[in-house]
Specification:
The structure holds 2 protein chains of 2 kinds. By secondary structure, chain A is mainly beta. Chain A has no helices and 11 strands. Chain B is mainly β. Classes of the chains: A mainly beta, B mainly beta.
Chain lengths: 122, 109
C-alpha cells in the first residue's frame, strides 16, 4: 500500500525557517517525481515545488522561489522541503504528492499524504 | 507560465447534470493533459479525471472529462448528481511547472 506521511509542521515566527519531511512507503520511491502542494485555510490548492526522480531537476512556484528548497533522499525514501524567510501568507497545510511519471511536471498526482500544518505567526 | 480559471461555485439538484469549466489563459489547452481532483472537507484531494477524460478505477462513470480547443477550456461533467458529490473540484495541468485552477465548490441542493 502506497503511503506518504508528512512531518515537521508547526508554528514559526515570520522570517523563521522550517523543514518538512515526507516519508514514502509501498512503492519504488526513485521511480517517481514528487511534489509539494499547499492549501491555505479556506483556500484552494497551490503548487509549491516539484522534483524529478533523481533530484536532477526541480521547479518552484513563483511565490516561494528563492525561499524554499526541495530535495529528496532516495536511500531513505524521503522527500523534503526546506522553508526559509517564512511569511504569514505561507501559513497552510502542506501536502506531499506522488507524480505518475519520473518527472514532477509529467501529469497527475495519484497519491497524496494527509498534510503537515505550517503556521507562520508572531 | 499560464493560469487555469474555474467558476467559484456551482449548484444543482440531485439527479441532474452539472458541468464545471476550466479555462486556460496562455497556451493551448491541448498542449498538456488536464486532470480533475475532488476534495471533500477535511480530506486530501483524489483524482476523478486524468489525461483530459480518463477515469481512475473506482470513479463512477457519472464523471466525465473533455477539452474544447475553440474555447481553450476543459470541462468536468457529473451526471446523476448525488449528495456525496458535494465537494471542491480542482483542475490541474502543467508545462515547465504545475498549475492548479482556483477550485469550484459544488453544492448539491
Amino acid at each position: 500500500e502506497v503511503q506518504l506521511v508528512e512531518s515537521g509542521g508547526g508554528v514559526v515566527r515570520p522570517g523563521g525557517s522550517l523543514r518538512l519531511s515526507c516519508a514514502a512507503s509501498g512503492f519504488t520511491f526513485d521511480d517517481y517525481g514528487m511534489t509539494w502542494v499547499r492549501q491555505a485555510p479556506g483556500k484552494g490548492l497551490e503548487w509549491v515545488s516539484g522534483i524529478n526522480w533523481n533530484g536532477g531537476s526541480t521547479g518552484y512556484g513563483d511565490s516561494v522561489k528563492g525561499r524554499f528548497t526541495i530535495s529528496r533522499d532516495n536511500a531513505k525514501n524521503s522527500l523534503y522541503l526546506q522553508m526559509n524567510s517564512l511569511r504569514a501568507e505561507d501559513t497552510a497545510l502542506y501536502y506531499c504528492a506522488r507524480g505518475v511519471t519520473a518527472y514532477y511536471n509529467g501529469g497527475r498526482f495519484d497519491y497524496w499524504g494527509q498534510g503537515a500544518l505550517v503556521t507562520v505567526s508572531s | 507560465n499560464f493560469m487555469l480559471t474555474q467558476p467559484h461555485s456551482v449548484s444543482e439538484s440531485p439527479g441532474k447534470t452539472v458541468t464545471i469549466s476550466c479555462t486556460r489563459n496562455g497556451g493551448s489547452i491541448a498542449s498538456n493533459y488536464v486532470q480533475w481532483y475532488q476534495q471533500r472537507p477535511g480530506s486530501s484531494p483524489t483524482t476523478v479525471i486524468y489525461e483530459d477524460y480518463q477515469r481512475p478505477s473506482g470513479v463512477p462513470d457519472r464523471f466525465s472529462g473533455s477539452i474544447d480547443t475553440s474555447s481553450n477550456s476543459a470541462s468536468l461533467t457529473i451526471s446523476g448528481l448525488q449528495t456525496e458529490d458535494e465537494a471542491d473540484y480542482y483542475c490541474q495541468s502543467y508545462d515547465t511547472s504545475v498549475v492548479f485552477g482556483g477550485g469550484t465548490r459544488l453544492t448539491v441542493l
